Every structure is written in C-alpha cells, then in structure tokens.
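Practice problem 4.
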C-alpha cells in the first residue's frame, strides 16, 4: 500500500509519499516542500494571517492532489508549534478538513521529538552508539537522546528561528550587543535540557531539519567544498559554523541569499539559526555535528508502520471498505481503544432488543455501529465540545464507501451523543426527511445511553438485557465490577431514548455477570 505523510511546520509544509514493503519498511516515492512561514505570521501577530492561511491551505491542497494521483490509501498529517499556538489554529484545521478531507493532528513538542527520533534512528546506524539529536524548526527546537533501541530523553524548547527572528530584530544584521542578547536568551532556555542530555551521555551529535541542513551545506561551500547531493552522514565542525555565523550576521537577507547553500526563502532567519546552532553545540560540549536529511515526516511513516502492521498485512484482502475506512479514521484520531468498540456492542444490544418499538432496519443499525466507533474522534482536537469536532471530522474526513448523506447521518449521531438534542435549527438535521429525522433521534438516544453505560471507560458493564413489563422498559445492567458511575451516566443520558420509544426506562444492576454477547 501507499501512504502520504504531511508535516505542517512553522517554516514549511512537507509531504512524502511512501510505498510500504512486506517487511514493514518503506521507500520514498515522491516528496514535496513549500515554504509558507506560518510561524512568521503567528510569532509576529499571535495568529495566522489571511495570507498565511491561504499559503498553507494552498500547499496542502496541492499535496493532497498529488497524493491522490499516487493512489495513496491513507494520509497522515500533523501540525506543530505555529498552528498549536495560533489563536485561529482551529479554524485553519477546519479549512484543511473542509477542502481536502484531511484531518491534521496538532501534536505536542514531546510527540514531535518522538517522530524525529524514529526517523533519525532509521537513517543513521545507532546500534553501537547513542546520539544527541537537534532539530531546529520555525517555532521550536527539539533535543533528543537515544540509541537504536529507544529514546531516553525528548525536550521541546521555544527557540525556533521564526520565533527568534521576531524577537531579535527581524531579518536585519545583528551587532555584537544584539548577538550576545540572542546567545544569552538561547542559553537561558536551552541549558537545563542540555545538562540533562549530557548527564544521559551520548557518543554522537546529529542535526536534522532544513535550517541545520542549510547551515551545514553553506559552511561546507564557504570553505570551497562542492555541494552535497545527500547530506546524511556529512560532518560539519563548530568552527566552520561560527565562521559562517559571523558572515550571516553582518549582511542583509539579500546578501545572505547569495551564499551557496542558503535558499532565498530562509535568508531573513538563517542568521539567528546560525547563532542558535552554535550556542546549542557549545552547551552540549560538541565540536561537530553529523547531518541527517530524515525528519518528522519519515517518523510519521515509521510510526504508522509500527502501529498498523496487522492492517497493512491484510490491506489487500479487505472486503468491507466502509468498516475498514471507519476503523482507519478512528485510529488516525487516537480512538482505537476498547471504549468505542464496547460502546458499539452495548448500542447494538439495545437496538436489537428494542427493535419492536423503534422499527428501524439494518441500514440504521449499521450507521449506529459506525457512529459508536467514531463518536469520540473529536477529542483528537480537544475534549471541550468534542461532539462538534467529531461531527466535523466525520463529515469532512476521508470515509471511503459512504455517500454524502450517510456521512452526514453518522456525523449527526456523533454530534448528538452528549448534551444537545437534535433540533430543527441545525441545518443538517432540518434538511433530512421525516424518516431520517426520527432515525437520528432514536439512534442518538441509543448511543447516548450506551456511552453512559461505559462512563468510566473501564468496561465494567459487560452487557444489558431489556424486558418490557407493564409499559416500563427494565434494563438489567450486567456488571463485572462497581458500575455505580455507569448507571449514573446512563440515567442522565437516557431521557432522549425514553421520549422516542414512548416508554420510561428503569435500570437495575446484576453484578458478577459474564460478558453478554451483543
């Protein structure tokens, strides 16, 4: 199978298209990069400007088209510090989802460090040595220590080149006083992390990211060397980087762009990047750095391969593309644990045992099952209002095999699984036929109650048996542990189903029950 990995960074947006092999390795089939400088917008203004949004969205739309031409089966996208810190970062993510169906994950600095570590470990042999890795981005610097087996230490520091450019004179030359202020600032923020790294001990210092690769190439060219076609494994000395830094600090961005290895797009921030890298190496007590072209996006592919080895092996024989697509979206949004599956089992049990009352069919049953798997995917963006986020992700995410109407129906079930009831003022709900409006009310009522029965997410309720006596629906809750929280949750969330079925619901607990089949 083929997959695409997109890194929405503070300097640039990168994408690689990878083909997986039988031994769970991969080969790069295509790669693209566009400098969009989201960080410049955020660190100057606190938000993504309209121009930055247009540039970032335009790049991702082009990359998405390219990925589709390659026939990728999945697109994994992450956003880092610029989007994480922007006041309107969520709006930008929604725009990406609406225009492409891609739902980027906003990752923490610790997650960023882990992906970088995976990529470096895959590109440079660490079997007999450990390494300190620096990754200089637009918004942050990641410092990582590890070997071939594991990452020991991962820290993220707010020292990216676009952030420093905004704080220290823009792109203008820096004098001695300004340079010292910049060095002192870097030391104050980076010294604790580098003391940790030195205490952990390492034999090699590695640098990845466009800024470090550009500095390494420029330092090499400055001493008369020929341009490297591949920088991985090349070594640059600290004294060479210091000589380059002196030159970069003294001239304008236009003059910096004339230096071999310096792209015009990086010319207004590369000088602070040079001071930053030299200071980091001094704090780490290192006199040289080994370059590595692998970066976060390769780490995304490797993480995908490690976490989905079974599904990749079975990809060619998938028969139910709809179920497979639902499970993939749940996995991409971090909702592949036991809770959604358990809620699904409880929801189907309730559906089947109340079929004589709601009279819904197998099509509605399948939509309920899919909605149960996806009801919490909105937590990928944030817990607050996650039902709204879930509806957006489901409606605009890449759910293959579904019509637009089916995606909208599943999205509404997720939207109404918590607090609000379906109302005519919701345009999507109002646009439905009478039949489907009733189905959404019944199914969201079932999903609410089932979700309440796993309120703690510990699967204490193994099943439910329903019996109607004297006009009352008696729910015998089969519990394997203390289900007090679950019963409380179900009682709070059962009112909608009571109204739609026209019967009051009473819950009773039977403890020590075996798991009931749904």
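Answer key:
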């Amino acid at each position: 199978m083929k997959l695409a990995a997109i890194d929405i960074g503070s300097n640039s947006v990168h994408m690689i298209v990878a083909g997986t092999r039988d031994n769970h390795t991969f080969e790069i089939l295509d790669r693209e990069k566009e400098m969009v400088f989201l960080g410049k917008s955020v660190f100057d203004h606190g938000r993504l400007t309209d121009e930055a949004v247009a540039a970032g969205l335009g790049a991702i739309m082009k990359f998405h088209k390219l990925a589709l031409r390659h026939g990728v089966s999945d697109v994994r996208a992450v956003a880092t510090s610029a989007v994480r810190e922007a006041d309107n970062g969520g709006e930008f993510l929604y725009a990406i989802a609406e225009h492409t169906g891609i739902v980027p994950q906003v990752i923490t600095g610790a997650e960023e460090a882990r992906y970088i570590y995976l990529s470096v470990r895959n590109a440079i042999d660490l079997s007999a040595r450990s390494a300190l890795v620096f990754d200089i981005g637009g918004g942050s610097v990641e410092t990582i220590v590890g070997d071939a087996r594991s990452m020991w230490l991962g820290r993220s520091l707010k020292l990216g080149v676009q952030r420093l450019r905004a704080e220290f004179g823009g792109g203008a030359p820096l004098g001695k006083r300004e340079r010292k202020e910049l060095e002192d600032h870097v030391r104050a923020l980076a010294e604790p992390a580098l003391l940790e790294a030195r205490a952990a001990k390492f034999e090699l210092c590695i640098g990845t990211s466009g800024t470090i690769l550009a500095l390494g190439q420029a330092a090499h060219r400055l001493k008369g060397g020929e341009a490297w076609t591949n920088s991985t494994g090349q070594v640059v000395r600290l004294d060479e980087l210091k000589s380059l830094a002196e030159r970069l600090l003294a001239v304008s961005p236009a003059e910096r762009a004339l230096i071999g290895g310096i792209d015009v797009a990086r010319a207004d921030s590369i000088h602070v990047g040079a001071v930053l890298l030299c200071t980091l190496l001094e704090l780490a007590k290192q006199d040289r750095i080994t370059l590595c072209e692998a970066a976060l996006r390769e780490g995304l592919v490797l993480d995908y391969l490690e976490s989905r080895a079974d599904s990749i092996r079975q990809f060619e024989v998938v028969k139910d593309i709809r179920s497979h697509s639902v499970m993939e979206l749940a996995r991409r949004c971090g909702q592949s644990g036991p809770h959604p599956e358990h809620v699904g089992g409880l929801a189907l049990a309730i559906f089947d045992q109340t079929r004589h009352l709601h009279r819904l069919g197998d099509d509605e049953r399948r939509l309920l099952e899919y909605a149960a798997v996806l009801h919490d995917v909105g937590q990928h963006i944030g817990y607050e209002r996650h039902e709204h986020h879930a509806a957006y992700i489901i409606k605009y995410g890449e759910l293959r095999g579904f019509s637009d109407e089916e995606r909208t129906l599943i999205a509404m079930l997720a939207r109404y699984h918590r607090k609000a009831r379906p109302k005519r003022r919701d345009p999507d709900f109002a646009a439905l036929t009478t039949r489907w409006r009733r189905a959404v009310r019944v199914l969201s009522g079932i999903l609410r109650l089932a979700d309440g029965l796993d309120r703690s997410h510990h699967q204490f309720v193994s099943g439910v048996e329903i019996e109607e006596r004297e006009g009352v629906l008696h729910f015998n809750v089969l519990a394997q542990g203390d289900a007090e929280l679950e019963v409380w949750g179900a009682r709070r969330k059962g009112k909608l189903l009571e109204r739609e079925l026209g019967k009051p619901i009473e819950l009773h607990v039977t403890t020590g029950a075996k798991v009931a089949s749904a």
